[in-house]
Amino acid sequence: MNPDQLAFALADLDSQGLRRRRRVLDGPQGVRVRVDGRDYLSFSSNDYLGLANHPEIVSATQLAVARFGVGAGAAHLLTGHHRLHHELEAELAAFVGLPAALLFSTGYMASLGVIPALLDRHGEVFEDRLNHASLVDAALLSRAKLTRYPHLDLAWLDRRLGESVAQVKLIATDTVFSMDGDLAPIPELLALAEKHDAWLYVDDAHGFGVLEREAEHPHALSASRLTPHPSLIYMATLGKAAGVAGAFVAGTEELVEWLVNRARTYIYTTAQPPLLAAAVSASLKLIAGEPWRRQRLAELIARLKAGVADLPWPLVASDSPIQPLLVGGNEDAVRLAEGLRARGILIPAIRPPTVPQGQARLRISLSAAHGVADLDSLLAALRELAP
What we know:
By secondary structure, the protein is α/β, with parallel strands linked by helices. The protein folds into two domains: 17-46 and 291-385, Aspartate Aminotransferase, domain 1; 55-289, Aspartate Aminotransferase, domain 2 (3-Layer(aba) Sandwich). It is built from 14 helices and 14 strands. The chain has helices at residues 3-15, 55-68, 76-80, 83-96, 107-118, 133-142, 154-163, 186-195, 253-262, 264-267, 274-289, 292-307, 330-342, 372-385, and strands at 25-26, 32-35, 38-42, 100-104, 123-128, 145-149, 168-174, 199-203, 232-237, 247-251, 322-328, 345-346, 349-350, 360-365. Helix 6 (133-142) links the parallel strand 5 and strand 6 (145-149). Helix 5 (107-118) packs parallel to helix 6 and helix 12 (292-307) packs parallel to helix 14. The longest helix has 16 residues, at 274-289. It starts with a helix and ends with a helix. Residues 213-220 have low confidence and may be disordered.
């Protein structure tokens, strides 16, 4: 596309109701925010445990700034790998019960670093059709063959893994799918990886810190303790439930050592500010020590499901804090989101290409910081706007 075509392409996005525009947040993230100069009740962030502005995390960050300054100043392999980074990696590995962990600046950079470090054009990556874009881009960057399997269709995946003649195979999946909120069957996928001598790369961006016990979510990873397995590569982000920023990859010591030497998005970038490592460390202590946050999420999820049962828009089946309200048409979804915004409630309208055509939705994101009254306000507004 040349410069002269951009205006026409943008106009085409407008005509389809697909043009995105940024809103400006003033003040801290939370369930009540000031956006574009107006106050809202927000159901639109990934701050699932309500930690993004927690005073203990703020205090840990301030202490780290006072002692260690702001910028890391260099890449990890030069002089940017701070003691705080090193200690947090050990803490994260212990938190998830795996031998070693490695920090990355973002989850996107983690996936772009890991998959090309393990596969080349002689490999094959198998991805769930609803995986996050970062996993798809990572596979393409690796130059491996990319095979996308129907959502959660393990029988189909099993057959294709068995037919593959690739030198290295890797299964990649979200654990909580970001637009539907449903869960991948991780134990079954790990069994397939073992059967077919493949890696299993799991992106737990939306599950880390939230899906805490396997007894509550038997098809998901336990976000507090994993069963070590040489084929498992676990990635989680630290800017959602943890309330801070960044990501980490955990697995065997050999895997982490290889990534230190071969993951280009780790090697060729400045390390994150050490203050963020101090903030994440404080967050981990809160996640482990305050299980009421997850309990409140479960209560809110149940209340929302019951409250929308008589509305014309169904919820996509999900037991996670991501509760998509399926509207259908792009313009209808935007109109409903605008109606809520006029009533002081902020929820994003999600449209293609993020979701399939005809499946535009409002992505309701619940937080432990929400109260029952907040949820009831949302339900009352939806009933007012129902046709």
